[in-house]
Amino acid sequence: MDDDMEGGNLGPYQDRPRTFPNMRTKPYTPLVFRIFMRLNVRVIFVLLLLGFGAIFYIGASTSPVIVFVFSVCIISFLFSIYLTKWVLKKDEGPPEMVEISDAIRDGAEGFFRTQYGSISRMAFLLAFVILVIYLFRSTTPQQESSGLGRSTSAYITVAAFLLGALCSGIAGYVGMWVSVRANVRVSSAARRSAREALQIAVRAGGFSAIVVVGMAVIGVAILYSTFYVWLGVDSPGSMKVTDLPLLLVGYGFGASFVALFAQLGGGIYTKAADVGADLVGKVEQGIPEDDPRNPAVIADLVGDNVGDCAARGADLFESIAAEIISAMILGGTMAQRCKIEDPSGFILFPLVVHSFDLVISSIGIISIRGTRDTGKLLLWKIQ
């Protein structure tokens, strides 16, 4: 075999027809989405209307800033739905591209189901450990002054942890879902125009980014407003508003927990598949690099989607959530040290900043066009 490699004899493998079997199986859809798909459209509309009504009622009971944040996030979600429909309308190219794309999509969904199934079980186990620790730990001076017992603090932290882990998992799924569907459409558009391919890529990535950032912002805002109303913050004998962001730490911890394992699992998987594809394909069998006849190449591309897209979405969600919560804690502490009467503006400032991020990013995504403006181009040439 060494003589064949040195002499450049690739063997009969290269003479095989360049066909790729259709490996597409039944598509995987998370349980939450399957439940919603089985419901009637009117029922879903009523549930969403009630949910939005409850969210805005809690926000109005907290601060007008929270209402503004909720409004921007919901409008951003509607804009992301528009981006999704726009991207999915684009063609997927010839049947050969679709076959390979289906195999990559099937592998990515299978890997996501296995990986996040294990992460979810570990998250519930860790949530139980956190509950036990908080139930048996001594109360802090802030909890004693606000009347917040150990059991209440434990359940609040566990609920925030599970919500952060759930949102981080959804962010990862959104990143994987859009990547495996946009890749083939970008490749198909690149055969016609580089500008069209750029527009599809930006709008597909913009959908994932808007959903991830919007979920991070609205998740923290919902927790903040819910705890504000439920605990009666700033009422006589209750918790101060400057201590409220400390209860949101579990949200960031849950997001970090999922993002950590998603990054490790996806990164190790894609690197192992990449090395295996190079060793077995190019070195032993003489198959060209990134040839779809090599199963390790498909595994490498699956790893790119679940590691660089799904795990990146979870990591981005974790970074933004932790950044918002830490800035809220710092703002509340600074306002308390400076003896400011109404510290809510300092605490809610990070949410407002990221809400404007969603607005500016949406404008930037829309500004990229797939074709040149011929009128402006002609005027520029005349000048």
Notable characteristics:
383 residues, mainly alpha, 78% helix, disordered N terminus, disordered C terminus
Map the helices and strands.
Elements: H1 2-7, H2 31-38, H3 41-62, H4 64-88, H5 95-136, H6 141-146, H7 150-190, H8 194-230, H9 249-285, H10 295-337, H11 344-367, H12 374-382
Region (Disordered): 1-20
Membrane topology: Multi-pass membrane protein
EC number: 7.1.3.1
What does this structure look like?
- With 383 residues, the protein is mainly α.
- It is 78% helix and 0% strand.
- The protein contains twelve helices and no strands.
- The chain has helices at residues 2-7, 31-38, 41-62, 64-88, 95-136, 141-146, 150-190, 194-230, 249-285, 295-337, 344-367, 374-382.
- Helix 7 packs antiparallel against helix 8.
- The protein is globular and about 75 Å long.
- Mean pLDDT is 78; it is low at 1-18 and 374-383.
Largest sheet: none
Listing every helix as H and every strand as E from the N terminus to the C terminus, the arrangement reads: HHHHHHHHHHHH
Percentage of residues in DSSP E strands: under 5%
**Sequence stretches where pLDDT stays below 50 over 5 or more residues:** 1-18, 374-383
What's the number of helices? 12
What's the helical proportion of residues? over 70%
Helix-and-strand structural type: mainly alpha
Radius of gyration: 25 Å
Membrane topology: Multi-pass membrane protein
Transmembrane segments: 39-59, 65-83, 119-136, 156-180, 200-224, 244-262, 346-368
GO molecular function, one term: diphosphate hydrolysis-driven proton transmembrane transporter activity
EC number: 7.1.3.1
